[in-house]
Amino acid sequence: MEAPASSAVVRPVVRHVVIQVMRQQWLILLRERRLRILGALVLAMTAISLVAAAIDARRLRDARAHDAHVEARVWEAQGAANPHGAAHFGRYVYKPVQALAVLDPGLQAHLGGTLKLEGHVQNPSRFKRTDGGAALSRFGGFSPAFAMQVLVPLLIVFAAFSAFSGERARNLMWQEIGAGASPWQLLAGRYLAFAAALLGLLALAGALAALLGMSAWSAAYFGALALMLCAYALYWLAVLGIVLAMTAVTGSARTALLAGLGFWVVGALLTPMLAPMLAERRHPTPTATDFHARVVDEIMQGPDGHNPRDARFAAFQEATLKQYNVGRIEDLPINYSGLLFEYGEKTTADIYNRHFERLYADYDAQAASSLRASIVSPLMALRPLSAALAQSDLPAHRHFLAQAEAYRYALVQALNRDIKFNRKPEMREYAADVAAVTRGVRFEPAPLPLAEVLPRTAAPFAWLLAWLAGAVALMRFAAWRLEGRA
Amino acid sequence: MSAATIILRTELLRMARGRWLLPLWLAFLALCAYAAWEGAAWSTQRGAVLAAIQAEESEVHQMRRSQIVNELTPENKSRYGGAIYATAMSFRATLAQGELPVLTVGQAEGYPMAAKIFPFVASNTIFDEYMAGMENPAVLAAGRFDLAFVLVWLLPLLVMAGSVDLWSFERERGMEPWLLAQPVSLARYLLAKVAARALLLVGPPVLMLVALLQFTGAPGPAALQAAVLSTLYGLFWLGFAALVNLYARNTAQAALGCVAGWLALVVLLPALALGAADVFAPPSSPAERTNALRAMAMQARAEVRGQADAASRPERVPAPNIPDSLRKRAVEVERGEQLIRAAVQPYRTQDERRLRWMDLLRAGSPAIAFQDALERLAGADAGRALRFQDQAHAFLLDVRRLTQRYLEQDRLLTAADYDSGMPRFVHREAPPAERLGALAFDAGVIALFVMALLAAGARRLRRQAPLTE
After folding, report:
1. pTM for the complete prediction?
2. CA-CA distance, B7 to B197, in Å (whole number)?
3. Domain boundaries, given as residue ranges, for chain A
4. Pairing, β B91-94 against β A432-433
């Protein structure tokens, strides 16, 4: 009967010690000028980059709306034109700017926000922000995600490396242990103090991001933002645990700092750079020239849609004549060229779709391979997770491309159908009001629903949780080692 | 033996005995070797793509020549318009790789590497096919791990990792007063310690770089220039670490100072400079430019068709060798080109202004200047890419002039034309003086930063002088 009673007494005492240590660490943190400056600097940089990104996003949104308006006018200005010529002239569509991309621009700079849609061809998106740069562009811009993914872990190293190491911190620790606190209580107390400061910083960044994205407020927006903040919290707390464990294990502040910086260099600089490259080596991406050559080869093996006399259309011609119950092309109630354009478009679209699917499968394999590098760095799990929730990653881009392709196909086929139904055999040149023909075909891209994003976040979340668990285990190990020495 | 030599020898011995130096060298060598391997693989792949593009031109010419020789008859002439009409001539202009492509990918992925040129193609679209690559955007966003990255980003960390305790070590161990009590000035101590680190921390990486460049088959003056610039950059970071040591009370503080300096000069300042360029000289909007050009193309078509309708003439008898519809198209293309030139000019001016700003902003940090120099040495700089674009445009205009002559003379292409008469694009490099001038500017920027460090160090030493005397 005694044991439960004593453990019930001990638990509040333990909690009391942890709270005391936490308070004391808070005081140390507040008193340390270096940390105050560093914390304020990181917060200011995050806030400035958030505001700058929000202004930039608004400018981009306005510019794309303006471009879409001008593009529609250009399309309409064609007036009466050959519909197939108009399909070659093509249209441009613009990718909508996602609200949470302000917080994490992800791959946006390398994706391009404009897509040319034309007959026979599926173009990749163009006008990347990285196009046309100079040496300065190699260093990349500054984004809130960069501050939160790279700079905050560095701040954690700077802030926490001397929590247990160094002469002063070591003496304080032995005094505390002598006064009855266990090493684990000391570690937990300091961990909670730092964690509270970090979570405060995260809450501020999240609140500012939410305020700046006011126009996009919705349940999905807040859901994605909350999940994003949870992911950053897990990442920061894991890094904090590892740094604290290092400082507890190493007696010298210098060694603790160098170990912390080493962890940062490997985890935040080298692994995120090397892992995608190694993944690309394992699952090579074809060059643009190879890709197009393969697509063109396959298209060339089929009949030429511009040439109704192509012998390879024989079977199609026969089936068509049979379908309309006539003996000659001239007797068809529809324009045969238009029908061939329609058929050819379907064939080329299928070929492109198949090749792009293969390319995307390579990208997916690379992404899976990169995610496995989370075993070396938690950032490898956080990056895809954060970009997925911000919809600034490749799957979100592919979602846009798929919608654009559906629109392109509908647009081109509307033009082909116009030829099919309206061009008479006696017309030497045919022109139609292409704007009127395509008026019913609209492009209204929608973002990915959160429910479709969530399954992709499960594995990165699991990695981050594993890192946090590993960090706590390391802290336990460090406490156990200190207990042994005490 | 002078005091400085004794300190130098002692310092060299101390560093050589330290267990950290060899692993540091090996880690750096491994990173350099991997980066060079990646660079060589990228360069090989790029070379293969360029060769394929050039082969495409030859194949088209051979196929057309063969059509003229083997298939063309006076009766089926109209079916071989692609082979016999000059208006259908097809060319490729390619930007060959520079002298040291292994060094860095630089701006090579941000500019077109080739152009597809037909006489009637709109001049603003000749690079379209070679603008978008198929690379995984995730790989591009992560950045290329090339030798330039290792040198610009990691060499400073290597140098500072070995110099972080250059003087703070003595201060931390309480040796400083004892050392300063000797008849050797602090400046001399520092100089000797810096010299030892220059020999063991800057020298070996530079030698590794030269060896790797030799190994990957890129010897020559460019490799030597890369070595000189790397030495200068390494010395800057060594000087920076020495200066931080003059202020830091202990090694931890020195480490903080060094990392903060690295962060400021390699990460934050360039990001800030890029932000400044975006604010004061934003890039032109390519989407807006495209819309303007499409509108111009429509205008040209409407104008020319209107004129053609007004002056519609009966078809010539006998019909000319080249159909008149192609002459009409040539007029449309010419008018379109005039409108394109006028429409593109404001965007071109805006982009040139941005590049001038970015060129100037490289003076903001030795890291940017060094990156710029490496890109120039690799032949992957923006200036070279833009020069190629200008030359490809000029080539297109040459091709159009040639086509015009064929149209005026109503002359068809022959097998002999395909054998020897076709123009060929040859990229002309910038004059050596211009290239050297840009490299000298970059070296000058790094040297200026070194001098600023020396001035700051001298000032600090002067303030500390009374303590040492």
Report:
1. 0.88
2. 12
3. 14-485
4. unpaired
